[in-house]
Amino acid sequence: MVINKNLISIYNKVSNPRIRRFLERWISKKEKGNAYSGTIRKIYADNYHIKIGYGTYGGCFNRANIPPGVIFGNYCSIANNVRIFRTNHPAGNFTTHPILYHPKMGFAKKDLRNPSPLFIGHDVWIGANVVILPGVNNIGNGAMIGAGSIVTKDVSPYSLIVGNPAREIKKRFNDLIIQKLENTKWWELEFDDLTHKIDEFNSIVNGSN
Fold this sequence. Notes:
The chain has 209 residues and is of the alpha/beta class. Helix content is 27%, strand content 17%. The protein has a 6-stranded mixed sheet, with no helix packed on it. The protein has a 4-stranded parallel sheet with strand order 1-3-6-9. The mean pLDDT is 94.
């Protein structure tokens, strides 16, 4: 995965949000799209504290909906309108208003919230209009979250969850297949190496291996 330091330097010198968006689109086109652009990933990690794995695409690049501290694994598929929240308004004070903790409101000297990170594993699929709440810290490899789900707790690997609140309805594969997939660590491969082994990895789940 190539990272263009010159383009990063140009981006960092610009403060206008519209120009930054233009540069992101231009860099993405130059580097075969957001799914594979190393430069875009470096920009998001350094400027917005959002870490996005190789091959991951979609709503992970929507900064309006993705807060700092979210880490996406490789080859995730994220719908554009996924919303992720890392903090709640505190309930134990006389008011829930952010005047007590957010410096933009003019009282607090610094942001007093302490959001926990969210780790999203490899090969995770998150459908349209999913909301992930602050109580979630880990979404396991291979998980699928159905459209419109409200996720309130951690998601186990290779599970399919749906609903409000979201609940697991089944595993994608049996334990043996899951272990075989985990052992391959296929998500560590970049495009050329992965595409040469697709039949091999498919054979794990279709019973021929």
